[in-house]
Design a protein that fits this description.
Radius of gyration: 15 Å
Structural class: mainly alpha
Mean pLDDT: 90
Number of domains: 1
Distance between the termini: 16 Å
Low-confidence stretches: none
Number of strands: 0
Strand content: under 5%
Length: 64
């Protein structure tokens, strides 16, 4: 199976659409919340990743 890493690929577009805002939110959280609560900053990245994986699974089921 070929994987094309370009914006023509729908999965790449969706991944960028999900992860760029998640990374921006995570960076803001790391900068603005106290150091003892920095673990909260990773949550947007994890949530964005799981939403993306859920979309990939749903898309595969829809294609069958």
């Amino acid at each position: 199976m070929d994987f094309e890493l370009s914006l023509k690929n729908k999965r790449v577009r969706i991944w960028l659409w999900m992860m760029i805002p998640a990374l921006s939110i995570a960076t803001a959280l790391f900068l603005f919340i106290p150091k003892e609560h920095n673990y909260i900053g990773i949550l947007p990245i994890i949530i964005g990743y799981f939403i993306y994986i859920g979309w990939v699974i749903a898309e595969k089921k829809k294609q069958r």
